[in-house]
Amino acid sequence: MNIESTSSNGSFTFYNNGVSISSLQFIKWYSKEAEIKYLDSTIKIMQDGFWGTKYKIEKDEQNVGKITMNWKSDFLLEFNTSEKSLNYTLKCKGFAKTRFELHDDKGNIIIILHSNMNWKKFNYNYEVEVNTITDDYDINELISYCGYAANLYLAMMAGAV
């Protein structure tokens, strides 16, 4: 599984064994608002607040969750399903060879994104490693949210946002 950047603004396509699973497009080149096409759904991620640390997620125009950046520069992904509330944390690890780990609320690693910088196009591609399959939430959808948050983190650390 991999995430391939399609533009220097952070847009990407998520592939599993060469088959396109989802694609994320930023609304404008300078915007943090994005739209994900996944299966028959349209998922929108929009900034929620002034400081740019909170984002709401709408799937088919229904609020399904939010992404929040905390003071440790970790991203908290919170989803509200009909049965319960799900919480995940995306943490950046490493310095020269950056990777992102998605943890569930018990601390188990669900997904690891290994970043690869393409210096010619000045964008990031990711190799995706799934450690634990979760029945709580769609893993492919989670990977798309992780790709969004990882690109946002790298843009913030580069001072481009």
How would you describe what is shown here?
By secondary structure, the protein is mostly beta strands. It has one domain (2-157). 12% of the residues lie in helices and 51% in strands. It contains one helix and twelve strands, in the order ββββββββββββα. The protein has a twelve-stranded antiparallel β-barrel with strand order 1-2-3-4-5-6-7-8-9-10-11-12. It is globular. The model has no long low-confidence stretch (mean pLDDT 88).
Keywords:
single chain, 161 residues, mainly beta, twelve-stranded antiparallel barrel, 1 helix, 12 strands
Overall geometry comes to: globular
The residue-averaged pLDDT reads 88
Strand percentage, roughly? over 45%
- Which secondary-structure class do the elements indicate? mainly beta
User: What number of structural domains do the residues give?
Assistant: 1
Rg from C-alpha positions? 14 Å
DSSP E strands, number: 12
Distance between the termini: 28 Å
**Count of alpha and pi helical runs:** 1
Helix content: 10-25%
Can you write the helix and strand succession as a string?
EEEEEEEEEEEEH
**Major sheet: arrangement of strands:** 1-2-3-4-5-6-7-8-9-10-11-12
**Biggest sheet, open or closed, and with what strands and sense?**
12 strands, antiparallel, barrel
- Segments where pLDDT lies below 50 for 5+ residues? none
